[in-house]
Amino acid sequence: MELLRIKRPEMLKEHSPEDLGRVLGLDRAPEVKTLRRKLSRLATVGRATEFGRALAERRVAERGAALGFLYADGPSSAAC
Description:
The protein is mostly helical and 80 residues long. It has one domain (9-65). It contains 3 helices and no strands.
């Protein structure tokens, strides 16, 4: 959501579920209520960072040759 500048799960409704799903590696993006439930669960157990790291490692293992890198340096990068 951050990379697409989607600030709240409700804003997902403004985007195509199929297009968002492709970004996530799914057929379709999850519904807002599903996403809210999963985000709440991650926040409750304090494992969001661990989840993000595991997801990134999995993507690199599956598509390492096709991945690129984005370097953002400080708050001014958000305006780009």
